[in-house]
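Sequence only, no structure available. Ideas?
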Amino acid sequence: MPCDLSAMLLAAGRSSRMGRCKQLLPLAGQPTIVRCIQTLVAAGITDIVVVTGANADQIEAAVQHLPVRTVRNPDPDGDMASSVIAGLRAVHECCRGVMICLADQPLVSTASCRRLLEQHANAPGRITIPLFEGKKGHPVILPLNLAAELETGGTLRDVISRHQDLVQLVEVSDRGVMLDMDTPEDYDEFERLVREQTNRA
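Reply:
I predicted one. Tokens follow.
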């Protein structure tokens, strides 16, 4: 993937509902955040920025062997927009678009990422959003100029709402684009789903 697109993996949250650092919880023997990064690398993305905040030292240590850069959100209690703003300051200088990924969605498939990247390449000025069974999910790809609008306030949802005419929805067969791992019960379910994937492989 050329450097005109960067992936931004948001991993700054405190995991308050989980009760422990969810980015480091193991899935199939590796930390959740490592699984997320490996998916992006397998999809062909060469510029990956991991935004940390709470538990930054531990998360950064866990990913130091991977081809990523890390940047810290100075406000770990801030919203997603504050992490994106922090990440924008670290993306590659050639970057013209950003894939915004969530560290609590480790079941997003490589195939889904590739499909989104292909659609973005065909229409780089548009906002690319995965659609699973009629519902919008993540990751989302934004042109850099639209992502930069977060600097003036508002949320990612606000930016997308202002530019509905630029949204392209991409159907995927991957439930992972909808699944967030926020609670201990979620984690149990994710472990079960990963075991099922492993057994089918």
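The chain has a mean pLDDT of 94.
Hope that gets you unstuck.
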